[in-house]
Predict the structure.
Amino acid sequence: MTVSAPIKVTDATFEQEVVNSDLPVLVDFWAEWCGPCRSIAPVLDKLAAEYAGKVVIAKVNVDENPALAQGFQVMSIPNLMMVKERTIVFNQPGALPEPVMRDLIDQLINLQLPENGAEEATAQDEE
């Protein structure tokens, strides 16, 4: 199923919707009272539609899901985190301009993560 709008993720659904996603995921940690969070929301809606089938955009309300915010040490919102193949590859607080978010999503889609075996071999080669 192709998702063309941001999905709401909770403490209960985070693992299924984000960690186990077949697609890369951009997670927006936000709150209703946060002005910068509200300012990037329309951009995330637009990007979710444009990148449907390539990236999932997930929104975590930190007031409703404090365990997730605490678990990922989110101290400032908005906070954008990118997950690919069960790995956090980007995590940064602050509202980013649309061109920067678009560039980050393009990088996320194109990012090639090393397989665990390759990582271990590299570490051994360096010793």
